[in-house]
Design a protein that fits this description.
Blueprint (H helix, E strand, L loop, with lengths): L2 H13 L6 H5 L8 H10 L3 E5 L2 E5 L2 E2 L4 E5 L3 E5 L10 E5 L2 E5 L4 E4 L2 E6 L3 E4 L1 H10 L9 E4 L2 E6 L2 E3 L6 E4 L2 E6 L2 E3 L14 E4 L2 E6 L2 E3 L5 E4 L3 H7 L3 E7 L2 E4 L2 E5 L7 E22 L7 E23 L17 E22 L6 E22 L1 E7 L2 E4 L15 E2 L1
Parallel strand pairs: 1-4, 2-5, 3-8, 4-9, 5-10, 8-11, 9-12, 10-13, 11-14, 12-15, 13-16, 14-17, 15-18, 16-19, 17-20, 18-21, 19-22, 20-23, 21-24, 22-24, 23-24, 24-25, 25-26, 26-27, 27-28, 27-29, 28-30
Antiparallel strand pairs: 6-7
């Protein structure tokens, strides 16, 4: 069978929804086409759509431009190189909350407006190659798969992602973005995922909607951040006005993570009507420490269903990775107030509520209402350094052997 015929067969199988292993895809020599040149030409002409037709297409980094839509047709696979040298020269980026120059993300847009990735095709990369490079270059920073850096009016719709070197989708300093119907998996076709492979990280961005997406990650599924420590505090750009609806998590550490990089603050966040199929560590995880600064306020999670939560349904950790020793200087504590978890149903959980606020700046106004858990294995409510904790309508059908004592003053809250 000739190479062209093989590629057509593979395209037909992918279009029919047949899953092919990474080895099977690698055995098919991918075609090459100058998609970057087509994107640049479309931008110079004032904008337009660049289409990736069915087939397997090998490529290096793709840099999106203003007023251009990259449309990956059903049956098309964009297979990105796993060779880090292909992603040079370095570009302006943000990496774990700090602005710096780093390897280009596999798909990258900087200072662009009206930009989109659409279609029912697939974007993939070689996880094994990135893992080998990371093991050999411990100080090397793996790039994000998709990053929008200081962009506006972004649309991501319908495509799938398989594999990722690091965070999968990263919206950084982006205003007005819609992520709809995207199937995100950090696992490649061989079932292998690297660490730190969040599904979508929304950082220093506003007016973002994530709707009807599916996540299978090697880390958290959906994460909100706003810059790390002094760098984030200096910029002071919040993440705000974020809505997440009708999403599914098949695998991951956390359904919704807030932090831990919150230097610019996070506010006005709503997650509703989402489900966890399988297990996660936590549904809502608010995490920060005494160096992070910023604020977290007006966060609501409601109408969520989950099969299993290994740790806590609602968790707060104000000493995440750092607890200040006596006399520590240059501290920037995080203001946390107005967090609510409502109308949540979980089949099995380690705990319902585990909150550990900052003793020098307690969290305020934390609400847990209408939560039903069929089985709790460890604790029901365990909270310290939280003022005005309200627990209403909590139902545990099979409690642990030593349940939370209602009038225990050491818990920093009370069950109603």
């Amino acid at each position: 069978m000739g190479g062209v015929v093989r590629r057509r067969v593979v395209a037909a199988l992918l279009s029919a929804g047949v899953a092919l292993s990474a080895a099977a895809l690698a055995a098919v020599g991918g075609d090459r086409r100058d998609f970057q040149g087509e994107i640049d030409a479309a931008c110079r002409a004032g904008g337009g759509r660049v289409t990736v037709p069915p087939g397997v297409w090998d490529t290096g980094p793709i840099h999106l431009r203003s007023n251009v839509e990259l449309h990956v047709e059903e049956g098309a696979t964009l297979r990105f190189s796993g060779n880090p040298s292909d992603y040079l020269p370095k570009v302006a980026t943000s990496w774990q909350g700090e602005e710096m120059k780093n390897l280009s993300p596999l798909v990258y847009a900087a200072f662009a407006t009206n930009v989109a990735i659409t279609g029912r095709g697939r974007l993939t990369t070689d996880n094994a190659a990135w893992d080998r490079w990371h093991r050999d270059n411990r100080n090397g920073r793996r790039p994000q798969f998709i990053q929008f850096f200081c962009c506006g009016n972004v649309r991501l719709e319908d495509f799938s992602v398989r594999g990722s070197p690091f965070w999968t989708i990263h919206l950084y300093r982006t205003d007005e973005a819609v992520v709809r119907g995207v199937d995100v998996s950090a696992f490649d076709e061989n079932g292998f995922a690297l660490k730190n492979t969040d599904g979508i990280d929304i950082e220093c961005s506003r007016h973002v909607k994530v709707v009807g997406c599916t996540f299978r990650q090697g880390d958290d599924a959906i994460v909100l951040k706003s810059g790390r420590d002094e760098d984030g505090i200096r910029r002071g750009i919040p993440t705000e006005d974020v809505t997440i609806e009708d999403c599914r998590v098949r695998e991951g550490h956390v359904l919704l993570g807030i932090g831990s990089e919150v230097g610019g603050g996070i506010r006005n966040v709503t997650m509703r009507d989402c489900t966890v199929e399988g297990a996660v560590d936590r549904l809502l995880f608010v995490k920060t420490n005494a160096k992070r600064g910023g604020f977290i306020e007006d966060v609501v999670m409601e109408r969520v269903r989950a099969d299993r939560v290994r740790q806590a349904v609602a968790a707060l950790m104000a000493d995440y990775w750092y607890y200040p020793p006596p006399g520590a200087a240059n501290l920037h504590r995080t203001v946390i107030r107005g967090v609510a978890v409502r109308n949540v149903r979980v089949a099995d959980a380690g705990s319902v509520v585990e909150l550990r606020g900052d003793p020098d700046l307690p969290a305020r106004d934390f609400e847990v209402a209408g939560v039903t858990v069929d089985k709790v294995r460890r604790k029901i409510v365990d909270a310290v350094n939280v003022e005005n904790l309200r627990v209403d309508g909590l139902s545990v059908r099979q409690p642990p052997s030593v349940p939370f004592k209602k009038d225990d003053p050491s818990r920093g809250g009370q069950e109603k």
